[in-house]
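FW: tagging you since you asked about this chain on Friday. Here's the raw sequence from the shared folder, copied in full. Didn't touch anything.
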Amino acid sequence: MKPILVINDDASLLNEMVSVLEEGNFHYIAAKTGREAMSGASEYDFSLVVLDLKLPDMDGDSLYKKLLFNESHYELPVAALVDSMDSEEVAVVNKLLPRGKITLLSKPLKREWLKELFDQYGEKK
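HL: got it, structure written out here
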């Protein structure tokens, strides 16, 4: 089993993503912080990570590096959630781009974007 990892410190946005995952009957792990994501990550290879670029405890690039370091034998597609593409987000995206497959999702998210993304990468229960 390769779950989808969704990370966002905005509870309503995280709940929306979880709702779409549950409706689609996908395997997933949800986290509000980078630390929470890392504590649940040690047992899994993920099919996709949906990553908030600005977390309270670390930026998206740092978390992505840690996830890859835990499981260095696989590639991890990432969907990066962006607000305004300010200079901080642009810097993180530029660090992520050379590492592999990246999809940018702007906020507010649309359910159809999430469904399409989860159908492409997710594993059903």
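FW: The chain has a mean pLDDT of 87.
HL: agreed, and The chain has one domain: 4-121.
FW: great, closing this out.
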